[in-house]
Structure prediction request, 385 residues.
Amino acid sequence: MLKKSIYVIHSGSTIESLYTLFPFIISPFNHLLAYLHVDSKEVYRIYGQCVILVRVFKGNELYKNNETKKREFIAHFKKRFDRVIILDDGAGGDSLHVEYLDLVNLYYKGKLFHDRDNYLKPMYGRQLFTNYYHEHFRINDHAVKMREAPAHPELLDKLRISWNLGYGIYPLPRKTLTKLAKETIKLGGVRLLRPWFISNHKKLMDVLDKPVDLANKLKKVQARFGKNALPETVRHQRYLFLEKCRKCAVVLSGAVSPKAYNKEMEQVAGVLSPFGWGEICFRDFEAIINGAILIKPDMSHLETWPDIYKNGKTYLPVDWNGDNLIDVINSVSNNPEQYIDIVENSRKVYRNALRSLDNKVAEFLIEATAMKVEDDLLYVEHAAS
Prediction:
């Protein structure tokens, strides 16, 4: 393989295949990248300018609970590449792998704390919000995880923002299509998927261009989310919110089929989207795509892109303790039309972010690779023009 190629090493998960790698794949710079599955034998033979590591240890039993092996794996690339980059698409803003920061040139993440000092404090459950429910509600996890502060705080200067779940395939594809996409990327068939990805991207922008009529929406708030398969501190927010909504007649909760879920999402005035493994969820973008008012726990602590989380401008924030939750829900259901500006603003912000995808990828590649525009990225600019 060419020495000057930029390599992307991935584990082929659903999130990577349909979201994290999506901006690379549909951009005019895709021809600069070589994609390799982490299990590929070629991974240990490549060399060049830059390697981007995405979820390389996720679900890999070889590296489970073995920090030495993980460090050896990353260090191996340092011998063969000028630049080693981590692109972390972990769910939460706090789920950093600070133990690798000293081995890489830059560490990109789709969501980061505005206040970087939060990374210098131990966190119960490895998230700011799990630590909150542990401290304020005395919630304990069966399997306790602690995020310790980095030994060298100056390493946090390597942190950069990449992109979140906003770039990707919507509505969520059927399981058969998802499996096909994952297998295609794993086998190196990115070029085969590119037309489908580009088509979905264009359709999504077209949908966001259409006007929304809140007056004809159901005066209901959808709150169809589960809580059982999550650790105690992660699921407590969902438990707390569902308990508060239990006697609220305008809230739609409980399990339904994916088809019914999507249809209902089109019809309701509002969508309640709590945190999951992390703060940002598919539901956030589904709400905006379907012209619903997004109701979500306060996100002002987080820096992310696309940034659809402008308090009171693109979504309605609720307190993490849920104290104002029912008031917000009732306000939305009683008079959804009063929130038309929020719906339109959220769609405008999201649409503009989708349209600027090529610039976002170009900025990422120029900074990550430290290449000069006059060098390898010169013809990338021409491709984008």
